[in-house]
Design a protein that fits this description.
Blueprint: E1 16-17, E2 20-21, H1 40-43, H2 45-53, E3 57-58, E4 62-63, H3 72-86
């Protein structure tokens, strides 16, 4: 039998979880021929499996590549999307 400990961040929604990431590397780094050798989707597979085993739906990841180089407008657009995702979270959600 396998016992899994679910990070509190994954419990932020009653029926699913949100993954948000701000990697410093540009998107081409996350390809088979890139610096990181794997796509972001491949790197997130363990999280996807954990969510599935916990009966949670994993929303499409929210990723902002080259985070330290984005313009204020790009950052504002990313923050607006994140706020939109979090607006669906019930006020009493969480551990």
């Amino acid at each position: 039998m396998v016992s899994l400990t679910v990070p509190a961040a994954m419990l932020c929604r009653a029926s699913g979880c949100i993954w948000s990431s701000l990697p410093a590397s540009p998107e081409p780094s996350y390809t088979p021929s890139g610096h990181n050798r794997f796509t972001m989707a491949e790197l997130l597979r363990p999280l996807e499996v954990t969510a599935h085993l916990c009966g949670l739906d994993l929303a499409e990841p929210l990723v902002l590549h080259s985070a330290y180089r984005v313009t204020p407008d790009e950052l504002a657009a990313h923050a607006a999307r994140y706020r939109e995702l979090l607006s669906d979270v019930p006020a009493n959600a969480g551990p």
